[in-house]
Design a protein that fits this description.
This protein is 53% helix and 18% strand. By secondary structure, the protein is an alpha+beta fold. It has a single domain, classed as Tetratricopeptide repeat domain (Serine Threonine Protein Phosphatase 5, Tetratricopeptide repeat, Alpha Horseshoe). The strands form 3 sheets. A 4-stranded mixed beta sheet has the order 6-7-1-10. Strand 2 and strand 3 form a beta hairpin. Helix 10 packs antiparallel against helix 11 and helix 14 runs antiparallel to helix 15.
Length: 393
C-alpha cells in the first residue's frame, strides 16, 4: 500500500502538468486580445511568473500584444528575452526528452519552431521601425540573413530589402528584392522597387528585364515619399488533439486544420484613394507544413512512449504487485497527451502595401470583414519611407 502511495505521489507532478498548461490557462487573455482589449490581456500576463518549460510562450504572446498596443519598447525587451531563451534551448534536450517517454512531449521546454524563431526577429525589425530606429532594424536584418538564409519567407526578405534601402544600402536591398521575386513574383509593389534600384545602380539590362516583366510599373517620382504598410491579419489556428494509427498503436498527436486556399487582402483608403494590401506570407501554412514535416518524429516518440509505459506496467504487475501494475497502467495512460503548444498570438498572414505619396499629411482607413480602423495624421516626408505596422482581427 505504501508503494502504491509513493507511485501516485511520484506521478502527481506529471499528471498536474498534463491537466492544464499554458494553452488553456492563457485562453481568456488571448480572447481579450482578439477583441482589441489590450490592457485586459496584458494585465493577465503581468500577473504571471513564466517559469520552466512554457516560459518562452508567455514572453512571445505578451510581446506580440505589446506591439499591437503600440508599446514597442516593452515589446522589444520581451522579444529579446524570448530570442535569448530559444537560442539557449537550441539542441537536444536530453533530460527532458527522457522524461517525456514517461509522460509526453509537453514536459520538453518549448524553444519554438524554426519559422517562429525567424518571426521573432521579423517582429523585432517592425518594432525598431515603429520606434524610428532604422539602424537597429538593420542590425536585426543582418541577424536574419546570418541565421535563416535557408528559409523561404517572402515577407522577411521584402522587409529586409526595404530596411536596406531605407538605410542607403542599395546593393543589398536589390539582392533581397530579387530574392523576394523568386519566392513570390506577384507582389504588386515589387516591380517598382526593382525598377527603382536597377535604374539607380545603372543596370540597364536588368532595368529592361524588369520593365518587360512589370509593364505597368514605373519608378517613383522624384521628391515623393513612400508609405510602407505592414499588416498583421487574423490569428493562427490552435492545434487540436487527434488520434493516429501508427505501427499497430493508436496514439494522440497534435493536428492543425488544413489552411484555407487563399486569404484576401485588406481594403484601405488614403485621402480618398482606394487600395488593397497583398498577403505576402501565410503563417498558418508555415505552421501546418512544419507540423506535417515533424509528424514522423512525433509519431515515433508517441509509439515508443506507449510501448515503454506498457512494458513497465506489465513488469510491475508480474514481479511486484498486480494491483500496482494496474494502477501504473492507468497513470501512464492518463499522461498520454498531444503537445498543443505554439506561439498563439501570431497572425494568420503578413500583408504589405507600399504607396508612393507626395510629402504631406494623410489619413488612412483600413476596412475588413470584421471591422475598420482610421489612422489620422500620417506624415510622409520627401524621399523617405514611413513604416506603419497594424494588427487586425
Amino acid at each position: 500500500m505504501r508503494l502504491r502511495f509513493l507511485v501516485c505521489l511520484f506521478m502527481a507532478p506529471f499528471l498536474f502538468s498534463c491537466a492544464g498548461g499554458y494553452v488553456s490557462n492563457s485562453g481568456n487573455a488571448r480572447r481579450a486580445f482578439s477583441r482589441g482589449q489590450f490592457d485586459k490581456a496584458l494585465t493577465w500576463y503581468q500577473k504571471q511568473e513564466p517559469l520552466g518549460k512554457d516560459q518562452i510562450l508567455y514572453w512571445l504572446d505578451e510581446a506580440t500584444i505589446l506591439q499591437a498596443a503600440g508599446r514597442n519598447q516593452e515589446s522589444l525587451a520581451l522579444f529579446q528575452k524570448a530570442i535569448d531563451r530559444a537560442e539557449a534551448l537550441t539542441g537536444p534536450q536530453v533530460g527532458s526528452k527522457a522524461a517525456s517517454v514517461i509522460t509526453n512531449d509537453n514536459i520538453i521546454p518549448y524553444q519554438g519552431e524554426k519559422f517562429e524563431k525567424l518571426l521573432m526577429h521579423v517582429f523585432q525589425v517592425m518594432n525598431y521601425l515603429a520606434l524610428g530606429e532604422a539602424r537597429e532594424a538593420l542590425v536585426e536584418v543582418r541577424r536574419i540573413h546570418t541565421k535563416f538564409s535557408d528559409l523561404q519567407n517572402a515577407f522577411a526578405t521584402y522587409l529586409a530589402g526595404l530596411v536596406w534601402e531605407h538605410n542607403g544600402k542599395i546593393n543589398d536591398a536589390y539582392i533581397d528584392y530579387k530574392t523576394t521575386f523568386r519566392i513570390d513574383p506577384e507582389l504588386p509593389s515589387l516591380g517598382r522597387s526593382l525598377l527603382n534600384l536597377s535604374q539607380h545602380l545603372g543596370m540597364k539590362g536588368d532595368y529592361a528585364r524588369w520593365k518587360k516583366q512589370f509593364p505597368d510599373a514605373s519608378p517613383m517620382k522624384k521628391g515623393d515619399g513612400e508609405l510602407i504598410l505592414l499588416l498583421e491579419e487574423g490569428f493562427i489556428p490552435e492545434k487540436e488533439s487527434t488520434e493516429e494509427n501508427y505501427q499497430l498503436q493508436v496514439v494522440p498527436v497534435p493536428h492543425y486544420p488544413k489552411p484555407v486556399s487563399s486569404v484576401p487582402g485588406t481594403q484601405f483608403t488614403i485621402n480618398g484613394k482606394m487600395g488593397k494590401t497583398y498577403p505576402l506570407y501565410r503563417i498558418d501554412e508555415a505552421a501546418w507544413q512544419t507540423l506535417k514535416d515533424n509528424m514522423p518524429g512525433i509519431l515515433t516518440r508517441a509509439v515508443a512512449r506507449v510501448a515503454t509505459k506498457e512494458a513497465a506496467a506489465v513488469a510491475v504487475e508480474k514481479k511486484v504487485d498486480e494491483g500496482l501494475g494496474f494502477l501504473l497502467g492507468l497513470l501512464f495512460l492518463s499522461t498520454n497527451r498531444a503537445d498543443l503548444r505554439s506561439w498563439l498570438t501570431l497572425p494568420r498572414s503578413l500583408q504589405v502595401a507600399t504607396l508612393p505619396l507626395p510629402e504631406g499629411e494623410y489619413q488612412l482607413k483600413l476596412s475588413w470583414p470584421n471591422g475598420s480602423k482610421t489612422l489620422e495624421a500620417i506624415t510622409i516626408k520627401a524621399n523617405r519611407k514611413t513604416f506603419l505596422t497594424q494588427r487586425i482581427f
